[in-house]
User: Which sequence fits this backbone?
């Protein structure tokens, strides 16, 4: 087998718990995004567009959807005899089986996968972000600097800097200080969680980290600080462009809404940097005599008889007559009945919203189920859920996955309310 | 239906579809938002359980071969069987350029001989329909027919349409007693759909025999001459069916997709129509967009008014544009304030600002590939 210069390890095991019901049964990288994609598609497409044809995808949390989505990697041209995509799940060993206890541990447990390919460099990615980046340019930078590790960074506003891992760098881009979520940030260069390592060096540090009982086995918290302490050559590669962590409901919603702008900052139409995903078998979409679509994106297989404004509509969605959808995200194969009003809402895949339903009514109120996760004007309806005819949902309401009409004890759930299976209502 | 193999005939050189078929085989003409004509016959075969399919190609085959690829979109990239494409070739025994449908088949007799299915379904690759060939094969076996031809009542086709078809007459038992190919004065109301079923071995004998006699066309030379000597039966299909035999048929068949019943039967059935997919972003509508009663494919960006029209992949409709009753193929651009009515734009056409193009319902205006108006 031809030796690969660089391979990618894509960390896709995180839950993304701040997306609430959207990641209750699927991992965050598998959440639908942008009218036809799943979040991981952006990173996988970046890999193939950057000529990286060997990608190990490390999964752990609710991996079923992710596994079936990736399959053998065909949509990304990653079905290769030599290299291609490999799914790496936690596994049992002779002595004991172990879950991945941190990002570094996840890579450590798959040392044998990397060793077999014996690449010179390894790029560590996460499947949680929306961005387009040419990793081969970062690799060039890494080689030119003769670095031991290169961390991709992005300039963030001062007021947000304390949410990230912040780098202090010399004029020459050499990192001399790294602080994880600092109270008083010294710079605005935030780590994007994208690292290129010389594999031999990384392997060493992974082993050392593994033997350290006090380590959290995390790249940002342990490996990078450890290398810095040892005086290793760490460089910051500055990325300029659209990069979003869509890890909260507000960020997820905003990032989707960005795509409906006249000239979106993140361009899905770039013929030189296509985003790949398994294409569903659907005809082109149909806008009916009574349909009206403005400032929105609409995917294949949709049938639109109502009005859609400022929204993102995934494949196979039906919107009946007299319905108005505004500022919302409607995921694949959802069915929206007639004379319904949907405002500022995320409707999960395969859900059904009945006739004369109103969603997003009234004023914001604190969520009574989990105000840490649900803290916006956005009402979230989970996957494969049925909202019966005539229901009224306020703002910041959450409805669980797999809810059936019988689960509703009242036809009105005011702002801040919830309907969660196994939890009590409202 | 492992019992049958499939052969798709993509037709000889013709300008039936004018500019649309001058550089591509009719089977490769874009249709209905995201498809090519051949997708329907090919998907029908796959949906009927046929996994050994040969496509006989001749004229302007580049776009067809590009479209079919390895057949993976139809699940026909198989180790055994799958999709095979047969362009003409030269050899000591072959006759080179195919002289007709029977000649094309005769030149690829090896394919027929090496296959082991009992029956063969032969169909043209330029008709729009969603059909299960299974019941037709059942009838073929029940009637103990030599050849079964799928036929359809022609009530919803015009006199001019009928002139492009084979018109058949049947007796009470559905046996075909008369067959007139492209008659000048069509009388009957039953048309051949260009779909034939027969035993594979029977076809091989038929082809060897007709080659010896110098026959080259399946319909003219073999079927019409054999109505008395062979048991040739009609299988009546009652679903939607349109052969793309003329610009008028092409235009109407596209517009028929705006009818929800036809769209459902053709495209939303559990027997899906597969096609080669391009990785386009979902269509984008800006503030000024006003789209009514239209089909819009992925990759379109719309800022103008569109009604009763079909937009294929990646069409750009700019501000102030008014498009009605038109078909815009992939990658065409309509710039500011242009107006189109009853037009068919081929791939990559650019209509510059302020232009007005008006066709007629019967004679839509065709703008050829990559032309800038």
Assistant:
């Amino acid at each position: 087998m031809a030796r690969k210069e660089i391979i990618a390890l894509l960390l896709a095991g995180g839950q993304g718990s701040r997306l609430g019901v959207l990641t209750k049964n699927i991992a965050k990288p598998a959440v639908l995004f942008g009218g036809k994609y799943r979040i991981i598609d952006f990173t996988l497409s970046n890999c193939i567009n950057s000529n990286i044809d060997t990608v190990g995808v490390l999964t752990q949390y609710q991996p079923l959807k992710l596994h079936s989505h990736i399959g053998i990697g065909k949509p990304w041209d990653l079905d290769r005899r030599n290299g291609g995509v490999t799914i790496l799940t936690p596994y049992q060993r002779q002595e004991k089986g172990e879950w991945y206890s941190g990002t570094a541990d996840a890579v450590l447990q798959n040392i044998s996968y990397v060793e077999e390919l014996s690449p010179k460099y390894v790029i560590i990615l996460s499947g949680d972000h929306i961005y387009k980046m040419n990793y081969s340019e970062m690799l060039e930078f890494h080689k030119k600097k003769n670095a031991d590790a290169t961390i991709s960074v992005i300039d963030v506003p001062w007021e947000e800097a304390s949410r990230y891992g912040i780098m202090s760098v010399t004029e020459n881009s050499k990192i001399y200080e790294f602080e994880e979520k600092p109270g008083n940030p010294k710079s605005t260069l935030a780590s994007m969680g994208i690292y290129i390592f010389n594999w031999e060096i990384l392997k060493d540090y992974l082993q050392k980290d593994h033997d350290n009982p006090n380590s959290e086995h995390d790249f940002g918290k342990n490996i990078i600080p450890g290398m810095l302490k040892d005086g290793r050559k760490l460089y910051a590669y500055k990325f300029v462009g659209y990069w979003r962590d869509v890890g909260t409901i507000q960020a997820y919603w905003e990032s989707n809404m960005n795509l409906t702008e006249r000239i979106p900052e993140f361009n899905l139409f770039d013929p030189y940097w296509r985003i790949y995903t398994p294409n569903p078998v659907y005809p082109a979409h149909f806008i009916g005599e009574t349909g009206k679509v403005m400032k929105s994106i609409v995917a294949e297989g949709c049938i639109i008889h109502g009005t859609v404004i400022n929204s993102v509509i995934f494949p196979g969605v039906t919107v009946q007559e007299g319905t108005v959808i505004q500022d919302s995200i409607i995921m694949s194969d959802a069915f929206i009945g007639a004379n319904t009003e949907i405002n500022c809402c995320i409707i999960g895949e395969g859900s059904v919203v009945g006739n004369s339903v109103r969603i997003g009514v009234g004023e914001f109120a604190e969520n009574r189920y989990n105000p840490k996760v649900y803290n916006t004007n956005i009402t979230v309806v989970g996957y494969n859920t049925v909202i019966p005819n005539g229901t009224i949902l306020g703002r910041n309401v959450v409805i669980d996955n797999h809810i059936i009409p019988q689960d509703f004890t009242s036809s009105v759930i005011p702002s801040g309310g919830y309907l969660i299976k196994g939890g009590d209502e409202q | 239906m492992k019992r049958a193999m499939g052969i798709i005939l993509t037709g000889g050189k013709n300008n039936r579809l004018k500019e649309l078929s001058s550089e591509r085989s009719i089977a490769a003409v874009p249709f209905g938002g995201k498809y090519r004509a051949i997708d329907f016959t090919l998907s029908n075969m796959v949906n009927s359980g046929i996994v050994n399919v040969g496509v006989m190609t001749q004229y302007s085959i580049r776009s067809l071969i590009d479209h079919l690829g390895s057949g993976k979109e139809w699940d026909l990239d198989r180790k055994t069987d799958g999709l095979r494409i047969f362009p003409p070739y030269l050899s000591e025994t072959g006759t080179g350029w195919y002289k007709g449908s029977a000649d094309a088949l005769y030149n690829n007799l090896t394919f027929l001989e090496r296959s082991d299915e009992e029956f063969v379904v032969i169909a043209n690759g330029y008709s729009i329909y969603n059909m299960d060939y299974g019941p037709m094969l059942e009838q073929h076996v029940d009637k103990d027919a030599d050849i079964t031809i799928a036929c359809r009542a022609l009530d919803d086709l015009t006199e001019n349409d009928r002139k492009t078809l084979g018109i058949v007459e049947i007796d009470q038992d559905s046996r075909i007693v008369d067959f007139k190919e492209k008659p000048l004065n069509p009388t009957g109301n039953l048309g051949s759909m260009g779909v034939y079923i027969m035993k594979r071995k029977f076809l091989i004998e038929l082809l060897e025999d007709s080659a010896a006699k110098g026959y080259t066309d399946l319909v003219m030379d073999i079927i019409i001459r054999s109505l008395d000597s062979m048991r040739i039966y009609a299988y009546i299909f009652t679903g939607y069916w349109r052969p793309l035999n003329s610009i008028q048929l092409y235009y109407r068949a596209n517009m028929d997709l705006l009818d929800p019943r036809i769209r459902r039967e053709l495209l939303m059935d559990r027997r899906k129509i597969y096609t080669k997919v391009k990785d386009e972003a979902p269509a984008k509508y800006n503030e000024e967009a006003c789209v009514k009663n239209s089909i819009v494919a992925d990759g379109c960006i719309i800022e103008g008014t569109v009604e009763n029209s079909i937009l294929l992949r990646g069409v750009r409709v700019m501000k102030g544009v008014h498009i009605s009753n038109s078909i815009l193929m992939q990658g065409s651009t309509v710039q500011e304030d242009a107006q189109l009515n009853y037009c068919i734009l081929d791939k990559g056409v650019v209509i510059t600002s302020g232009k007005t193009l008006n066709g007629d319902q019967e004679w839509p205006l065709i703008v050829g590939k990559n032309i800038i108006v």
Remarks:
- The first strand of chain B starts at residue 4 and ends at 9.
